[in-house]
Amino acid sequence: MQVKARGVLSKESPFHAIEIERRELQPDDVLIEIHYCGICHSDIHSARGEWGEVRYPFVPGHEITGIVSKVGSQVTKFKPGDRVGVGCMVDSCGECENCKRGDEQYCVKGNIQTYGSVDRYGQYTMGGYSTHIVVKEDFVLRIPDALPLDKAAPLLCAGITTYSPLRHWQAGPGKEVAVIGLGGLGHMAVKLAKAMGAEVTVLSQSLRKKEDGLRLGAKAYYATSDPETFRQLAGRFDLIINTVSAKIPITAYLGLLKTDGALVNVGAPPEPLEVNAFALIAQRRTFAGSCIGGIRETQEMLDFCAEHGVTPEIEVISADEIDAAWERVLKSDVRYRFVIDISTMRN
Ligand code: NAP
Ligand code: ZN
Description:
The chain is of the alpha/beta class and 347 residues long. The chain contains eleven helices and 17 strands.
């Protein structure tokens, strides 16, 4: 099946309207008419080859929401008309201990990503900047009625990527949580940590977005460009979530953790991050990483957001505005997630 998409043709290329192939519906597949797709900084890292070589044309997008239009003969969980979502993964081995536990993102054979992977049919996967996608039902999420499809889209990556470490490191009442970087992931981290009952502080490059940060649920907001911030907040936090897409001086941030505190990196800059061992040793601190979340946990996050009224702040754009939106993301000028209205791609 040929469907419309927007893709880049090289590392430097702007977006072009192209047609791509989606596989014939297999017995366990769901065909989704995409309504919205969020723009994640990972789309940019990937398309520009910052994480390694990719194939062109390259169609990004892993914050997908839409409506089921057809289901395969053995599909039991979905029917046409259902409101659904797809995040960063579309398949995994299903047999390793991580997959069995519901941590498909840590599949020991490597999960199949929504874009930029070779799937079990030998096809190079293409993401959600397109009108339709075919996905195995086990990797399709149900969007609760309380969540509009446009606002639900960013939850499929930005939402789960911050929800999972907040849960794993037990953000909640009495816990001091800091979020580094108030972009797509960062603003979700603030809202989710607040909804979990934690005390939230934003650590941003400047005070430019301070009012927003406080409105989103932070109780404090500091500029990391001011060295005084690092003196004032030394030893303050139980948990720090780093959402920054670029290399930052991790050692300085480790100094803001309490004894036994953890700094969890979800930001994925291409350059290695440097850590001074003494910053860890001195207070038994942890420096960790976290990758999206499993399918079961993603559904739990969607239900949590519906129940607590947690949704991202979005700016809906047309398909012709993707290049401009990417430029704004690169300038940290996103408030706080761009979402493509896929209906603008259909005609
Ligand atoms: P984003 O919207 O661009 O947000 C990143 C924020 O980091 C910016 O808004 C900015 O916040 C801050 N920042 C940017 N450049 C900086 C610099 N040079 N120094 C200090 N701070 C800087 O990006 P995103 O979509 O949230 O993604 C963030 C990162 O997470 C990306 O690397 C992405 O690939 C990664 N990611 C990882 C996972 C995972 O599973 N681990 C999933 C999704 C995304 P301020 O203006 O407030 O400083
Ligand atoms: Zn993402």
